[in-house]
Structures are given as structure tokens and as C-alpha cells.
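Attaching the record inline, Q. Sequence:
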Amino acid sequence: FEPLFSFSPCFACGLPLKKMSAVNVTGVSNISRNDLVEWVNDVLQLGYLKVENLCAGAAYCQLMDALFPGSVPLKNVKFDAKNEYEFIHNFKILQAVFKKKNVDKVVPVEKLVKGKFQDNFEFGQWFKKFFDTNWDNKDYDAVGRRQGKAVVAAGSGAGPAAAAASPKTAGTAKPAPLKTVSKSSPVKSAPSAAGGGGASSKELKDMQLKVAELQVMVDGLEKERDFYFGKLREIEVLCQTPEFDKLDEVKKIVEILYATEDGFEPPAAEGSGDADEF
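Structure, as predicted:
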């Protein structure tokens, strides 16, 4: 005998239904690299400096804990991971949670743990869209959930990304002090050691830290520049192939590629003048 009606235990007892599976998404969030880092810092109370810091996997594990409380064994997450094998350990935890929540996204672990900008940026953009789709705007005590453990900014050499601070909720969270240098705080010249031994040493260390942070910014910008230049070069080569170069659409693309603006001209190729003579 089968009953005509059946009720789930949660419905029958009046308890709220628990999210059993995640809502899968396709595509990525249209978020810049700086906004992506600031978002992670805000939700998790971290002080990441660049996208590459996500290569440790710890942030993704805790973001899943924010979405699905209790689904991630946070005590097993290596928040202080500094080596590639520790990164892999964290991503295995993430993969297990993905499987538990029926997330169909493939995690490219081998690429992510290398700490390359583009791989981590693309996965981070996808995760931002996934998070926004599944987030229910509840308060989240990030520091308390990881029991105040300090988080290392993997790959930056900048030390801990978050200290064991007092618990705060995601809604009011602010990034930790380790941030890029603002334009309003220019690097000052080194103070004289005479008459201020302790203060001079402290200021010197502060300036050295700022210089290191600026170098991190420059390295990231150079990687991003080289990546997009490579993409444009691939498009240019494709437009020059015989099967495409006569198409009107391709001609318009070439015009955009070679267009210039006032005050900017592309540098002339080296030796171009001599090439015309031979």
C-alpha cells in the first residue's frame, strides 16, 4: 500500500528546508581583477593583494562554507598554505564539496596551483557568478568560522593575509591592512637615522613594504598586459589569413586593431626603414 500523499520531514515538522544542491551557472562574472580581490577580502576578512593569491584554494573553501554552512571541513583547510602540495590539498577539499553539492564545474587544479594570473582570474570570475547566484545575503562571521587562523597570501611573499582579528560579519567586513598603496600615500624619502633610531627603523620597514606592494602591482599589470597583447596578436594573424582577409567584417576588425588616438602612435618596427631599401 502506497500513501496518496507524502511529505518531506522538513515540511512536516515545520523546519526550514536546507539547501541540498547548488544552482549551477555558465559563463563568468564581468568583474575586474581589483574588484574580485576586494570582494574576496570583504567577505572573508582577508588582505589579499592580487588575483594570484587565490591559487592556495583556501579562500574558495571558505566561500563555499559561507554559501553552504557546515558543508566544508574547515578544520582540514590549510589557511597557511605556502607550497603547491598544500594548495592541491585545499582544492581536493573544494572538489569534494562541489561533488556533494552537485556543482558541475570542473576545477582546473593543476593550472590554478601554479599561481598564473589568467587561470586564477578566469576561475575567480566564474566563482563570483556562482556565489552571487547561490548567496542568500545572510551574515557570515568569516574570522570566527576559521577560528581566527591567519591566512597566508600565497605566491606574493607578503606574509599573512589576515590576522586573528575579532569576528565580523560579511555585511560590515572591511579588507585587512595589507592593501595596495593608495595614491594619497606617496612613498617618502628615507628619514635620517640621527636622532630617531627606533622611529627611523620603523618608517624604513614601512617604506620597504610599500615598495614590495607596488612591485606586486607592477608585476600583475605586466602579466595582464602581455596576456591581452597576445590575444590581440592572435586576432591579427587570423584576420590576415587568405580565407578571412577579404571579408567585410574582418576588414572592420582590422581597422579597429590599427586605429590610433590623438597623442598615441604605435612604435615603428625596428629596421623597417632599411627593409624598404632592399
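Confidence is low (pLDDT under 50) at residues 1-17, 163-197, 269-278. The radius of gyration is 25 Å.

More tomorrow.
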